[in-house]
Automatic annotation (TrEMBL):
InterPro entries: Cell2Cell_Antifungal (IPR051378), GNK2 (IPR002902), GNK2_sf (IPR038408). PANTHER family: ANTIFUNGAL PROTEIN GINKBILOBIN-2-LIKE, PLASMODESMATA-LOCATED PROTEIN 6. It is found in: Cell junction, Plasmodesma; Cell membrane. It comes from the Eukaryota. It is a single-pass type I membrane protein. The chain crosses the membrane at residues 272-292. This is Gnk2-homologous domain-containing protein. Pfam families: Stress-antifung. GO terms for cellular component: plasma membrane; plasmodesma. GO terms for biological process: defense response to bacterium. It comes from Ficus carica. The keyword Calcium does not apply.
Length: 307
């Protein structure tokens, strides 16, 4: 016997108002950090209900929990499968947030990414998802500490022509991001998250935290060189390799994660105040209409008695 379908709430019901509140609250959360960049799944599938599924669920839960306290972490969880010939002996996973995000924005981003992974990679033995503000990955083949410069995403903005000033600023920003010696004064030396700017051109670069400093530098140098050669005189460009990315734009990027947290909290408070006012208004309208309906029925009954 199939489950009965719940009644659809009418526009005047309190349930509809509550659903409206939650839908509106969810909308403005962290659009900047939640923007989709890329995602992929392994072709190999696991059987639901097996020990490997438990290991996958465990590692994804660990990623979400750890993001509440740090901006990067990795885990290895052995599978409890008794079959020594199984390729699903262990699950490896990591997450990383953009270096300028605060803890709240980071944890929200990772939770959103893990939720989306479950949707786009159902029963997949491995999957990876890059959002604007964070990156998550898991697989049954170890990738931790392995440098990988495979190009995953390349996007170039519209051409600005051969503007010598613009190209000079772009090259200055990219050279700053890619040169650990030149960037030492700005705190870039040895760091995995780097930002720089020249005039209206802003840039950002980041490596995944499981790389060594030398591997990070090698990966970033490759990504930056591809930006220069493949995007040419563009107004902006993104190159995401498997273990690092580099970006530049005339308009800059969403950054300053702590400020973003504060702005989000203020926006939520404003939204709550507006919604509370709307709910009160709707409730008063419902009461008023109900009163009018009862008054009308009362007068109608009185007229019938007179007749």
């Amino acid at each position: 016997m199939s489950p009965s379908k719940p009644p659809t709430p009418s526009l005047s019901s309190p349930l509809f108002v509550v659903l409206l509140v939650f839908s509106l609250l969810a909308a403005p959360s962290t659009a900047a950090t939640d923007s989709f960049v890329f995602g992929g799944c392994s072709q190999l599938k696991y059987t639901p209900g097996t020990p490997y599924e438990l290991a996958v669920n465990s590692i994804l839960t660990s990623l979400v929990n750890s993001a509440m306290f740090s901006s990067y972490n990795n885990f290895t969880i052995p599978s409890s499968s008794s079959s020594s010939s199984s390729s699903h002996d262990a699950v490896y996973g990591l997450f990383q947030c953009r270096g300028d995000l605060g803890t709240n924005a980071c944890s929200r981003c990772v939770a959103r990414a893990v939720g989306q992974l479950g949707t786009i990679c159902p029963d997949a033995s491995g999957g990876a998802l890059q959002l604007e503000g964070c990156f998550v990955k898991y697989d049954n083949n170890t990738f931790l500490g392995v440098e990988d410069k495979t190009e995953v995403v390349k996007k170039c903005g519209p051409s600005i022509g051969y503007d010598s000033d613009g190209l000079t600023r772009r090259d200055a920003v990219l050279d700053y991001l890619g040169n650990p010696v030149g960037g030492a004064a700005g705190g870039n030396s040895g760091t995995f998250f780097r930002t720089g700017g020249s005039g209206n051109v802003q840039g950002v670069a980041q490596c995944v935290g499981d790389l060594s400093p030398s591997e990070c530098q090698d990966c970033l140098s490759d990504a930056i060189q591809r930006l220069k050669t493949e995007c040419g005189p563009a107004s902006g460009g993104d190159v995401y390799l498997a273990k690092c990315y580099a970006r530049f734009s005339e308009g800059g990027f969403h950054s300053h994660g702590h400020k973003e947290d504060d702005d989000n909290d203020q926006e939520i408070e404003k939204t709550l105040a507006i919604l509370i006012g709307l709910i009160a208004g709707v409730a008063l309208l419902i009461v008023f209409l109900s009163f009018l309906g009862k008054l009308y029925n009362s007068k109608k009954g009185t007229l019938k008695q007179v007749k």
